[in-house]
Design goal:
Elements lengths: L1 E8 L2 E2 L1 H10 L5 E2 L12 E2 L21 H17 L11 E6 L5 H12 L10 H5 L3 H10 L5 E4 L5 H14 L5 E8 L4 H9 L30 E8 L1 H6 L6 E10 L12 H14 L6 E5 L6 H15 L7 E3 L2 H4 L6 H15 L1 E2 L22 E2 L4 E8 L3 E9 L2
Parallel strand pairs: 5-6, 5-7, 10-11, 10-14
Antiparallel strand pairs: 1-2, 1-8, 3-4, 7-8, 9-15, 12-13, 14-15
Helix pairs in contact: 2-5, 6-12, 9-10
């Protein structure tokens, strides 16, 4: 059961700012302000602009944590509050934390390298390592809420947060935990982060003067993704545990599929075979037929290979029903939150089920003949969907699909 969620994204801090922007089809992408990007081919990003770290982190602790940890803590606070739990958490040995992270403290690493390059070794912070290592997002959340169950990071590139949710789900199903705080966090917007993806030619670079139009999944003019930052955290709770305390249930996580293409470092397997197998695994785990799925929150990065492969994978799994499915990519508005993307998009999927509105794929102006499904173009759509799928695929060929059911 999903009983709480918290969001920090380029669309805003908090569930309602995110939902309002999402359903309005408003982009959160703009010029990079964190550093001088003038020499880079891609000079835009999905930055978080309304975040006040002091609301979530005590002032004395701010410098002890990288920004990705600030985001994770904020999202966790919102999720726990929404779930109606006190702090510290009751029966804390039955509460665990898993946070998916792709890049970790890359900003901390870049800052420390500048000191080494200047031969000013003495100024390296004693908090350099705790700020850098990816598992400290989960560690700091566990410390803050007194959660004494398993606490660790999942790292599988852009599938990291989806893996975190799936593994948390499995821990609850196995009877090992009653409550899990699970999701993802990322803060990769620095020179190294942007330059690295630009060197791979993975980023959109033709829309620097029109940043809101740059992320265009499934569109014929798509050319790459837009790097972004933020965090998403969900409270997953065992059914009877939630019922006993009278918790509000937003939706139910009912299926988890995970596999690997074992094909290429960065490109998806031909014909979307690995992604198709992953979706089929998730449907089988959930015990639902392909025809029961009414909406897919696609991985939909806006890269030429990914969007075509995902379209082929959907057709392979859903057959004729693929033409009846609503599919959208919320990355068209948020950009790509890398390791955090799967959790933010899972939260959007939960809200779509609960509120009966499907978020759009914006910037879908010219149909690509290879991407010929119903991508909910440009405008949100009222629709009461019972079962939905959320896809996350990452470098290294890693794939995760999660199945959610509307509650009530």
């Amino acid at each position: 059961m999903v009983t709480g969620l918290g969001l920090v994204s380029p669309l805003g801090t908090g569930t309602e700012p995110n939902w309002e922007a999402l359903t309005a089809g408003r982009s959160g992408i703009g010029p990079i302000t964190r550093f001088d990007a003038a020499g880079l081919p891609a000079r835009i990003a999905g930055e978080v602009h309304d975040f006040e770290a002091e609301r979530w982190v005590e002032r004395r602790d701010l410098k002890k944590m990288d920004l990705f940890i600030h985001y994770a803590l904020a999202a966790a606070h919102m999720a726990v509050d929404r779930a109606g739990f006190p702090t510290p958490l009751p029966a804390a040995e039955r509460v665990g934390v898993i946070v998916g992270v792709g890049m970790g403290g890359i900003v901390t690493l870049e800052d420390a390298y500048r000191l080494f390059a200047a031969k000013d070794h003495r100024r390296v912070s004693p908090f350099f390592i705790p700020r850098l290592i990816p598992n400290m997002a989960a560690g700091q959340i566990a410390l803050r809420f007194g959660a004494r169950g398993p606490s660790y990071a999942t790292m599988s590139a852009c599938a990291s947060a989806a893996h975190a949710l799936g593994e948390a789900f499995d821990l609850i199903r196995a009877g090992r935990q009653d409550v899990m705080l699970a999701g993802g966090a990322e803060a990769p917007i620095c020179y190294l982060g942007v330059a690295g993806f630009a060197a791979m030619r993975a980023l959109a670079s033709s829309f620097n003067d029109e940043p809101g139009r740059a992320s265009r999944p499934f569109d014929a003019r798509r050319e790459g993704f837009v790097i972004a930052e933020g965090a998403g955290m969900l409270v997953l709770e065992e059914r009877e545990h939630a019922r006993r305390r009278g918790a509000h249930v937003h939706a139910e996580l009912i299926g988890y599929g995970a596999n690997c293409d074992a094909y290429h470092m960065t490109q998806p397997a031909p014909e979307g075979v690995g992604a198709a197998e992953c979706m089929a695994l998730a449907l089988a785990d959930a015990g639902v037929s392909p025809e029961e799925i009414g909406y897919i929150n696609a991985h939909g990065t806006g890269t030429p290979y990914n969007d075509e492969a995902e379209t082929l994978a959907i057709k392979r799994v859903f057959g004729a029903h693929a033409r009846s499915l609503a599919v959208s990519s919320t990355k068209s508005m948020t950009g790509h939150l890398l390791g955090a993307a799967g959790a933010v998009e899972a939260a959007y999927t939960v809200l779509a089920l609960e509120r009966g509105v499907l978020p759009p794929t914006i910037n879908l102006d010219a149909a690509d003949p290879a991407c010929d499904l119903d991508y909910v173009p440009n405008r949100a759509r009222p629709a009461q969907v019972e079962v939905a799928l959320s896809n996350s695929f990452g470098f290294g060929g890693t794939n995760v699909s999660l199945v959610f059911r509307r509650h009530g």
